[in-house]
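Researcher: Please predict.
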Amino acid sequence: MYKILISIFILIILNACASNSPPSTTTDVCKIFKERYSWYKAAKKTEKRWKIPVPVSMAIIKQESSFRADARPERRKLLGFIPWKRVTSARGYAQAVDGTWEMYLNDRGGWFVSRNDFEDSVDFVGWYNYKTHKQLGISVTNARALYLAYHEGRGGYKRGSYRTKPWLLSVADKVQRQADRYQVQYNSCKKKLGRRFIFF
């Protein structure tokens, strides 16, 4: 009995580690959802709740964390080599910073919400982008503009802070291209994904 309990415990630990690791591919949304069907359900739930298309949310998360649960910004270096404070408090799949995450928690409510949980993170991305859509009038399919507002904050986007950052404009273009690719892929598999039992 003791050995069985130990085996079950080890399986639970291994499963948790596997679920927090990135999927085997991050460039094909159909393969991502085939491997992590719970992610599909979470992204679809976010789309239904916040009206943000699945490919847009997934493209933003890919850019922010490459689908790594433990993603965090690099630390600054003190005297050029001593690890120091991190650039921002961003972490998790969505790279949400502390202040914005707190606003999300206050708005959403509920317990046991974590930036390291994909379902919570994709819901955060949907929540933030929906509010951006309502406040700034950006289309829910405009991944480029939504990403700029996500990165700079809505105030920064309104001020046009991104215009002085060519590197950021390049990244936003990349996010739009990724969302477009994900959309084409998603169109080809969403019917299968919508069935209870799926066979690819």
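Model: The chain has one domain: 26-193.
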